[in-house]
Fold these 4 entries.
Entry 1:
Amino acid sequence: MKLSWLPLLSLIAGCATQQHAPIPTVPQVDLPRFMGKWYVIAAIPTAIETESYNATETYVLEKDGSIATTFTFNKGSLDGKVKNYHPRGFVIENSGNALWGMQFIWPIKAEYRIAYLDQDYTQTIIARNARDYVWIMARSPKISDADYTRLTQLISDMGYDMSKLRKVPHSSNQ
């Protein structure tokens, strides 16, 4: 009789797991316009960036279509040790250039979804369907409170746990 409860408990546990629809990407990204320096305004960070300050991500479109990326930040404080990482982005075909595989370690490519991009290419949200990481980025190190509120609401609407979102401090001389 005890074994007959196992399928029922499995079913209940499966129903308790929240499933989300995929996060949509923007319809089209003009890659040359998207390239350049972006300041990380806030993030649900990966393990390497939990204590990041002055975080920026810079993209360069290579001749082969890949995207050379430089992720730079100060570790632990505004004047902490500078850390640099150099992942490579690969645009997924038929994605309107809005879905990339970001490769830190070969052959693994992490999902990189451009979920929001303003028409001026000055603010963006990079998301993942797993809803484990997200980044608000802008072309300047500071954005207005109204813009920040609007962008965080978009992230909340995507189903992220907002208690994990961390504002990334930037020094005034950036």
Entry 2:
Amino acid sequence: MIVKDELLSQLRRYFDLNLYEVKLWAALLSRGVSTAGELSDIADVPRSRSYDVLESLEKKGFVVMKLGKPIKYIAIPPTEVVDRVKKNMNMEAQEKVKRLDTIKGSDLLSELETLHNNGISLVDPNDISSCLRGRNNLYNHLDLLIKDSQKNVNLVTTEKGFMRKMEGLRPTLEKAKKRGVKIRISAPITKENKKIVDSLNGLAEVKHNNKINSRFMTVDGKDLVFMMLDDKDVHPSYDLGVWVKTPYFTTAMDQMFNSMWNSK
């Protein structure tokens, strides 16, 4: 059985499975009922791993084990699997949120804050920089910087990037605006995103930009995040950015932004 890598990648992403799990699950879906050995051969998964992987799939609600010898596995209908996975993910998410809520105001959080404050005091602010891998990590860091902003946020992005950022960052931008932060966004304005642009009236200034294909954000003339790759050519999981805290470089980028902003 030949399953496209793209399909396997989608299954891993949507169902939170590892490579062996999606291979065996796809193989079982194509057979309906099968033994671990048969599935191992079909999916090209080592036999030594097939039993524990199938056991994992059984616990997660993707397959059931048929009684008898030899042991066989039965595929559960995909629609039922989707419902089960949604239910399990919701339960796990709620449990994790409850655990995190208990940390607030606890001795553990105080210890972590002390460790961080003592450590950060030893670091030269000009040396602070980091590599951000994956679009989720990138957006989480943009969100963090906007939360700490006091004066201004300048954002340059692409057409699709503009829509994604407004979906994910809008609540934080609204809070920043209430603090008096000036927000300016430069991006291609198209029929597809015009409604979003109009909805930002009073929240951010948005200007059309189709000359510079770039993605970066500056905050308060101190922090800069710039993306290394074109978002048209990279999978979200492999998107890459760099954050630097450097007034010198950030000021230079702000000057470039202002020049572009003020040009006709």
Entry 3:
Amino acid sequence: MNDVQPMILLGPDDVDALATSAVGLAAAAETARLCGEGTIKTGRVQVNGDISWMRIMAGLVDDLDLLGYKEFHRVGQRVRYHVHLFRQSTGDPIATIDGRRITGLRTASLASVAARHWAGTAPQRVGLIGSGEEAKEGLRALVGAINVSEAFVYSPTPANREAYAKEMTLETGTKVTSVAEQNQVMNSCDVLYVATSSHNEPFLSGDELGSVRFIAAIGSTMPVHRELRGGVFLACDEVVVDTMDATHESGDCIEATELGWDATSAITLGNYLMRPPLPAAEGRTLFKSIGSVEQDLVLAYYLAQEAIRTGRGTEITDVASLRIMR
């Protein structure tokens, strides 16, 4: 049966042009709301080979009439990401979108939505641990979400942190200072964004938090990965998670539980946004993120809608023919 529907292709240049902090924050807030209502269904599968692997994560988002999946695969050092969106009510295609920016942007945006709820309009000093792409997305989103007065960055490689400070000062208009020791960041900021590879030993303990009152930790997403020692969770008075899966899928959460942290005390971001935040004077707040497919799908959908509004992307005839089954 011939029922051809147009769809949009968004390549990397399109996504870079569309991926503003405003779009990311709007999508993140929507995701938190939808997850709080419990109407999203998800699933995932991973296939591993000798030199390659592929992961597919799928979801249904009823409120947006959306179904789709994110696919990414790795062969050696080569990695590619795509997100495919369809209309849930008809199965018609909406878009195929390059996914390189999506993971970092949705992660940074969710953390920044949590930080915005905590900070309100008060000026905040921001500290960053890490100087890679995730740390760049983090500062972009935070500058778009809260009143950042200044920022400090630490990473083990001097050249990397110096380059980060220079680049992000120019890009965001916020003064970013490179510091030589991690504790200089901890003693100079109110909001801490932790964005490391987390493949090595955890580097932050509960007795090293200095002046920090709000922590966003986004680097440890699997049981074998840790960036925070478990004591950080015990040193915080409120723990917010993007998904409850974080409490048993992240290595730092697992260690925290082994040390006595009650994982059932964590609250989801959707519920956190519906109640007053813990004031800084009354304790520390930790936002822990591992990511989930509905975050990718909602952000991809927002990017597709922005592409339609601004005329970005390439419209093509659907490549998947329709079959009517009995």
Entry 4:
Amino acid sequence: MPSLVKLFAYSFGATVFYQCYHFVGTVVYCEGISMEPTVRDGDYMLVERLSIYFRRIKKGDIIIARQYCEHDNCNFVLKRIQAVEGDTVNYVSPKLRKPVTVQIPKDHVWIEGDNKEHSLDSRTYGSIPYEELEYRVVLRLLPVASFGWVDKGKQFK
């Protein structure tokens, strides 16, 4: 009987851990310079999913999205939400090298890296469907000297 209780306890613990990881959030390691100086290469960030599920993502939030750019060799991208559905975005197209104006379609967002010169983002591949969003970044955990809430960006305060 005690082994049955242990088995139940381990199973319950594993289930709770999985549910927290899958539905609430986790810790991620960040690679790359596209979000510098806000998020640096090697930072560990606490991320959550509830904002995505309840559609509470706002301009200025830093998110992690499933890779949308086919020629990049990573599975996820970490970028800032610059615009949401219905917004108009003016930018210089890296492909055309001229000013372009686009309106963000329903259920899409426009994402850009803070380090614009070193970022493949919506300026390259356009707006992305909301369903591609995975996490919202909440807190920098490491390095300890930089521990704290993530900056919303000057233009969104």
